Amino acid sequence: MRLEFAYNDRHFVATDEHSAASYNQPVLLIDDELSDTRIAYEPDEPPKDSALDLLADERGVWGGPATRGALAMLAERMLGGMDAADVRGADYDRVIDAFIAEGKRRLEAELAEE
Which pTM does this prediction carry? Predict the structure, then answer.
């Protein structure tokens, strides 16, 4: 990470590439001199998809963040008693199947009311 800018005829560089930067903590150089100013840096990276998200995408289950949130809550209800290391793709498939079935039931109920 490197950010350079000038302000009031001074040159600033915030970087985590300097030898004084460690543990992902950047340093601030002012006119090429190391300063003792503390700065924070948080990478701008999107969150990585979970296995459940990847399998749901494969099955065509996507309706935006609210849908994914509901799917994650169902997975927690159905798989909450399991150790995370023991959860397998087949377990997520059961969750996705239940989610799709519930969606179909709700859609049929809505159509029946019309």
Answer: 0.56
